[in-house]
Write a structure and sequence with these properties.
Elements lengths: L2 H8 L4 E2 L11 E4 L12 E2 L4 E4 L24 H16 L5 H12 L5 H10 L4 H31 L1 H9 L17 H14 L4 E2 L5 E2 L1 H4 L36 E2 L5 H9 L4 E10 L11 E11 L4 H16 L5 E8 L2 E10 L23 E10 L1 H6 L8 E8 H9 L6 H4 L2 H4 L4
Parallel strand pairs: 5-8
Antiparallel strand pairs: 1-3, 2-4, 6-7, 8-9, 9-13, 10-11, 11-12, 12-13
Helix pairs in contact: 2-5, 3-5, 4-5, 7-12
Bound molecules: 3,4-dihydroxyphenylalanine (DAH).
The site of 3,4-dihydroxyphenylalanine has 11 residues, from strand 12 and strand 13.
Length: about 425
């Protein structure tokens, strides 16, 4: 294929092998190695294989044209033209770093036939109109003085060896290691959320979320916790006031920060018909004083499965599957009777102590400090959904059944990762965060 044809097809300049492009003969060309698979017979370098570093003045500078062609008629129009050429000179002068490149550079600017200043003399000065001649001469003299002085300064620098040192200083050492920019990581709580979500998603649950500002109806009443029910005492609640859409303040006691993720059970069942299988990760709030196991804000994962044929066996099987996936196949589970207004029967799930293997004795035969010798650790509350709850969401309690659970995420993370103070999750101390990259 002919070069011209290649060029036309690719839209790029095509440079014949071994031939410098015209007009850049004085320039330095850096040629990257020929690509192995490039056809030899074409006898060209692919445009992307050739990189020309233009250090010499380009031949199409303004000095190539006459002042008339440049539209210059008044002396004031000359200053920007000279300034542009001077800037070009300054920009290019740094490439003259040794005797050879200085000579090339000097020729390019001061060469008698084709130097830039010769171009100005021939194209600007000689044909200049009488009104312009003086000003062109003055500008040219100034430029020449600058060019002479700079080239002389560079010559001295090169001779004195200063330039060698400057080159050495500027050299880029590509073997130096790069700048390492520290990258953050997900918070341990977020990581554990993900771990637990993955386990439940793998057995057919989906993840839903709900609002952190709730109404007492969703947080309590629809969960079968009427006003003055003693269970409300366990959940010391933050009530909040806000502005409604009209800008008016909401009535005291009409909004609260949810004390658990259970209200999303109601919100989900209001929207969906059985079968429902969801988990709900999120933040919850209680007016607890902070200590190693309490915080006014913490995290829960709620679970809810409702269908026409869900039994207590499905319930315990699901929980056991989860606990073994999360803590390891070696752990045992057990459940004890408990009480929650929204489940019947209600249970408390325990796991065999992951620190002493369920034996109750730690290192050296001492009583295990984590389970206090019991061999079991309390994990979370759960149960079969109380039929009364179905009444609030218009499910037919005679046709559907299901189970629910609510796990304290922070507690699950603390147990698995050996953390003994919940506060470290919220202090954002990088020494802690860095341990869970
Ligand atoms: N919401 C309860 C709490 O925060 C935990 C809980 C217990 C959730 C039993 C449930 C459940 O869904 O069935 O203490």
């Amino acid at each position: 294929m002919r070069n011209a044809e290649l060029s036309r097809r690719s839209g790029h300049a095509v440079i014949p092998s071994g031939v410098e492009p015209a007009g850049r003969r004085q320039g330095i060309s850096l040629r990257l190695p020929r690509r192995k698979n490039f056809s030899r017979s074409a006898n060209v370098y692919a445009p992307c294989d050739v990189l020309y570093l233009s250090i010499m003045p380009t031949t199409d500078g303004s000095q190539e044209k006459t002042l008339a062609a440049l539209g210059v008629t008044q002396p004031e129009q000359l200053a920007p033209l000279f300034a542009e050429i001077r800037a070009r000179f300054d920009g290019e002068s740094s490439v003259a770093r040794d005797e050879a490149t200085l000579r090339q550079f000097r020729d390019a600017w001061l060469g008698r036939k084709s130097g830039v200043l010769a171009g100005i003399t021939d194209n600007w000065l000689k044909p200049a109109t009488p009104e312009l001649k003086r000003a062109v001469g003055a500008g040219l003299n100034q430029l020449r003085a600058h060019v002479d002085a700079q080239i002389e300064a560079r010559r001295m620098a090169i001779e004195s060896g200063a330039e060698v040192a400057a080159v050495a200083k500027d050299r880029v050492d590509l073997s130096l290691p790069g700048v390492v920019r520290p990258v953050g990581s997900r918070h341990l709580i977020r990581q554990v959320f993900q771990e637990i979500e993955d386990i439940f998603v793998s057995i057919g649950f989906s993840v839903v979320e709900g609002p952190e500002i709730e109404t007492p109806y969703y947080n309590f009443e629809a969960l079968n916790i009427p006003e003055f029910h003693p269970v409300r005492d366990d959940m010391d609640t933050f009530y909040v006031e806000a502005q409604d859409a009209t800008g008016a303040r909401t009535a005291p006691g009409s909004l609260l920060l949810r004390t658990h993720t259970s209200p999303v059970q109601i919100r989900t069942m209001e929207k969906r018909q059985p079968p429902v299988r969801v988990i709900v990760p999120g933040k919850v709030y209680r007016r607890d004083n902070p200590d190693a196991t309490h915080s006014f804000m913490f995290h829960q994962i709620e679970g809810l499965a409702v269908d026409t044929d869900i039994t207590f066996c499905d319930f315990t099987g699901t929980i056991e599957y989860f606990v073994k996936q999360y803590f390891g196949a070696g752990v045992k589970t057990r459940f004890r009777p408990s009480y929650f207004p929204f489940t019947e029967p209600s249970v408390e799930f325990d796991v065999s102590c992951i620190f002493c293997g369920g034996s109750g004795t730690g290192a050296g035969g001492a009583t295990c400090g984590k389970c206090k010798g019991a061999g079991w650790i309390e994990l979370f509350g759960a149960g079969m959904v109380d039929p009364a709850v179905y009444g609030f969401v218009h499910y037919d309690a005679k046709k559907v059944s299901g189970f629910a659970f609510g796990m304290g995420m922070d507690r699950l993370a603390m147990l698995k990762y050996g953390i003994d103070d919940i506060q470290v999750f919220f202090q954002n101390d990088v020494r802690f965060l860095k341990q869970f990259p």
